């Protein structure tokens, strides 16, 4: 639109989602203030640098900072659109209870500067009802403003929920191209948020109400968790029956209506292993499947540890290489990683015999201190280790040819080496013949 004034945007939370979101909104020409509680994060961004490696693959952050479109601060300022992208972890009660305190703290901040005509959009993965709770809090703090769903008159502000659904490893691409669900507290709120997202999202933007959008996000990740649990359960059954689970899955997936996911050492990351609990917490008596899937995926980690230990004990004195610590392939994120958990257990048990290969790590995480385990590269591992335990399907591991694995005992928990000679045919327990 020619001569149009672009809205001033404030993105609250400059983490994995908030920072790239702020950057692509700025790239669309809207001036953005990024708000974060950490001074170091704010200073880093204002220098045009980044504190999260993946975000700046194409210099996007530096570019928008240099053009004066993105600026970071610890102090909120008035804006036209507020986007909240803060963490929603578990409470520390041991019951997987969602902790929405960061969302509510962000809403308090926003309420301080909110004015008639503004829109507040929550992006954080949240239990159903959080957007309404956020609205209630802001309404309490700002009795001078009319809030949607609480008045028969035209409300002063719009409030909506629009979850992100980007895949770590492809954040920038997916932020721009994925379809989005946009849930308004009222249809009018949804339309206002839609007009905003249309500025920088090329995918389809589909409007609904806030509760449906909240549930949609949780359902997407619970769907994936349940389907990975199915694959992991199959892998345990196949182990018992002496079958190659990857071959069985490959064959089954040739059916036109079957699409089984891949088994692995468990499910990691900050989303798939967390979000299903938000559904369970909201409906504890009606979610046996979702709860069981979580249990299956967590138990797979222990199954892998047991198998790895059995393999190592069958090779007394052999040097062991654990391949990978990241929570999934080709990323440098080691948080909530089953690979890291398994490798640490093996390192604690077998000490100096264990070497870790993780091309995305400069040093080993702290739990490896005092275990005796070292960090080596894949070439050294192939030269010096007789037992290989594949925990992450990084490309650099996948391309190791059979000739370099010959004569080694291999436990491939990701199925990256289908040509590995099988002596004892058990899922993942592929011993070189
Ligand atoms: N995994 C398997 N087998 C598979 C697929 C994945 O074991 O067949 C494991 C991975 O190794 C990893 C975990 O699951 O440990 C999660 O990885 P992922 O690639 O499935 O998902 P995330 O956590 O990187 O991102 C997910 C995505 N959600 C869905 O695909 C439904 C992403 O689109 C969301 O935006 C993101 O969660 C989020 O932020 O919620």
What shape does the CA trace take? Answer: elongated
**How many helices does DSSP assign?**
15
Report the strand count: 14
SSE class: alpha/beta
End-to-end CA span: 68 Å
Ligands, ions, cofactors:
ligand SAJ
CATH architecture of the largest domain: 3-Layer(aba) Sandwich
Overall CATH class of the largest domain: Alpha Beta
Average predicted confidence as pLDDT: 94
Secondary structure layout plus pairing:
Layout: E1 9-12, H1 18-27, E2 32-35, H2 39-46, H3 60-66, E3 70-73, E4 81-84, H4 101-113, E5 119-122, H5 130-141, E6 158-161, H6 171-177, E7 180-184, H7 187-197, E8 205-209, H8 210-241, H9 245-252, H10 275-282, H11 288-313, E9 320-323, H12 338-350, E10 354-357, E11 374-375, H13 378-384, E12 387-390, H14 395-398, H15 402-405, E13 409-412, E14 429-431
Parallel strand pairs: 1-2, 1-4, 2-3, 4-5, 5-6, 7-8, 9-10, 9-12, 10-11, 12-13
Antiparallel strand pairs: 6-7, 13-14
Account of the protein in words:
The protein is an alpha/beta fold and 433 residues long. It folds into two domains: 9-203, NAD(P)-binding Rossmann-like Domain (Rossmann fold, 3-Layer(aba) Sandwich); 243-424, Rossmann fold. It contains 15 helices and 14 strands. The strands form two sheets. Strands 3-2-1-4-5-6-7-8 form an eight-stranded mixed beta sheet, with helices on both faces. It has a six-stranded mixed beta sheet with strand order 11-10-9-12-13-14, with helices on both faces. Helix 8 packs across helix 10, helix 8 (210-241) packs parallel to helix 11 (288-313) and helix 10 crosses helix 11 (288-313). The radius of gyration is 24 Å and the shape is elongated. Mean pLDDT is 94; it is low at 424-428. The structure holds ligand SAJ. Ligand SAJ binds at residues 125, 164-168, 220-221, 224, 228, 261-262, 264, 267-269, 271-272, 327-328.
